[in-house]
Specification:
Largest sheet: none
Helix content: 55-70%
Distance between the termini: 73 Å
Structural class: mainly alpha
Number of helices: 8
Order of helices and strands: HHHHHHHH
Length: about 190
């Protein structure tokens, strides 16, 4: 069922054909939803406003690339998500450590290694599983909301989430288990 808060299919189709008034109305009508997406995904209100504006600019410039008029919400969600992720990466790289939050070099290195392992495991997931996992487990959206964001049934969303969690778990186990020749357990019971 289409979300009535998004612009209608006729307006989207007219905008795809290049009707300037329809494009303007589409961008204006999409703004509240895009802004809501950005607020739920971005780390700061400023980033959310910037991400929403960037997403609306992309909508204005590339509406003709949208394949199905019913996919506007999903398409805009992906654009906003990507923009928020880009801003988060930039923010992390530039962020100074808070006062008094200086850990040892070893602690910092271990945290980076662990975060890198988790990020690599999540990045290795198929896009559909990765998106559902991030929205459900990282962003904390409810199952029905995540299912609606991606145009899935709740059962399909749960299935993707289950597979994604299992794959991440398996990947993390594989990177922590020693290789078969690395174990010293083979020498148990033997004396030199």
């Amino acid at each position: 069922m289409a979300d009535p808060s998004w612009p209608g299919e006729e307006l989207i189709t007219a905008a795809q054909r290049g009707d300037v008034e329809a494009i303007t109305a589409l961008v204006s009508g999409s703004h509240p939803n895009v802004r809501r997406f950005a607020r739920s995904l971005c780390a700061t209100p400023e980033d959310a406003e910037d991400a929403a504006q960037e997403a609306l600019i992309i909508l204005y410039r590339r509406i003709g690339m949208l394949r199905a008029s019913g996919a506007l919400a999903s398409w805009m969600f992906r654009i906003v998500r990507n923009e928020c992720l880009r801003r988060a990466r930039t923010m992390r790289a530039d962020a100074p450590l808070p006062d008094g939050a200086v850990g040892s070099a070893e602690d910092v290195a271990l945290e980076r290694i662990e975060a890198g392992r988790v990020a690599a495991a999540v990045a290795a997931l198929p896009a559909g599983q990765r998106d559902v996992l991030i929205m459900r487990d990282v962003r904390g959206h409810s199952g029905p909301v995540v299912a609606e964001m991606f145009g899935l049934s709740t059962a399909a969303m749960k299935s993707r989430l289950h597979r994604a969690r299992g794959a991440v778990r398996q990947s993390l186990r594989a990177t922590t288990e020693p290789a078969s020749g690395d174990s010293h357990d083979d020498d148990r019971g033997r004396r030199p």
